[in-house]
Amino acid sequence: MTAMWHLRDGCGTSSALFIDRVLPYAPLITTDIAVAAVLIAMYSVLVQRSVARKRAAIDFFLKTEMDSGA
Questions:
Q1: φ/ψ bin of 16: left (φ > 0), alpha (ψ from -120 to 50), beta (otherwise)
Q2: Residue 8 near residue 14 (C-beta atoms within 8 A)
């Protein structure tokens, strides 16, 4: 498979070989990036849930502490 583009980088060498090598793996690279994004999103949701639970517990205890003096 020959490259359709004849790109040149700053050194004057052709990037066509690089494109020809990477192009067959593009679907795998895309899938890897998508899986990484899903894992990061899941981790973010879990951390946010943990922080929300801790904050709710602190708010509850502070509220009960403030209400008990009245």
A1: alpha
A2: yes
**How does pLDDT run across 5-59, given as a tens digit for each residue?**
555 555 555 677 888 888 999 999 999 999 999 999 999 999 999 999 999 999 9
| β-pair partners for 8 | 14
| Residue whose pair of structure tokens reads 């999103």 in the numeric block | 41
- Whether this model's pTM surpasses 0.85: no
Domain ranges, ordered by start, for the chain: 25-68
Taking only Cα atoms into account, the Rg of the chain, rounded to an integer number of angstroms, comes to: 27
Burial per residue of 53-69, b for 16 or more beta-carbon CB atoms within 10 angstroms, e otherwise = eeeeeeeeeeeeeeeee
